[in-house]
Amino acid sequence: MLRKLAVSLLCATLVVVLSFRAQAANYGEVELSREGKAAIEQGMQYLANNQRADGSFGGEMGNTTGIVAAGCMAWMVAGNLPGEGQYGKNVSKAVEYIISCQQASGFLFKGRDGSMYHHGLATICLSEAWGQTRDKRIATALKKAVDLIIRSQNNAGGWHYQPGMPSYDLSVVVMQVMALRAAKDAGIAVPKETIDRALTLIETLRTPKDGEGLSGFSYSGGGRTWSTTAAGCASLLLCGDYKASALKDPLDYLVKARERKEDVGSPWFAYGHYYGIVAMYRAGGQGGKFLEYWKKWYPDVSRDIISKQAKSGANRGQFPLGYGCWSTGICCLMLGVPYRYLPIYQR
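RE: above sequence
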């Protein structure tokens, strides 16, 4: 049960990676506070202290590709690259570990109990590494990983826990869409049809308007939740030709859900809020009312994250797994949005 819960949390990271600097003026002057920068620094040091010699991490599931990728990208969000920066060596070791885990099929996981969550997140991490280094070994592994995602898309246009399953859920679909976009940004060929089919599927998970006139997104049909609504909004704004106005109802629902404290005590706190931060950032870049959403959302959620960080630098972030490398990496990624190193923040 614990393993399944950890795996399901892996879709929190929704990071598409190739380094660059975006123009901050288009998104409002919401910047990292002194406390936010300190929290990221402490988190990155905690991850470095817990990295093993082979590039994996200690602790619960620390040898899985998804968790290694999350930790690796926590260093990347602050500008560290393979072999470059304070944590450049740590990034290099993590990337090498992910490559070493790739199976002949292209699946990025060591062992039999992997999932598409791990694979998608590891694919994103390799996309960043390839974009920065143009290392041929990374390119070979990345192309094989992308081919697996394309091959395993089912007839509905989605993905589930294992490659080729006929069923799907929103969290797995979003992770694969983000991985494909990351690879495309890095210069890997990705069929437009593959992404379009997935985005069409995500739209089918949009829920009807409620009594307040607001809609959201569901996990695999049925009722909405604030966390899956955040995931749906983020994926469509990042990978589709969507204007924020087309997602006004779900975005308004997210604002109201935060005001009603639907996220307080939720085991999906980081899952939902990472997607929420990305969605609000992208929507805010289109100006108007949505800019105010971003300028309020990020500082508000950041205060919650910082308040939960331990003296060691670990952050629990309301994850059921407790303090550790996984939750710390995700919280660094959320706090690091204003650094603007990652192309997920480019309009």
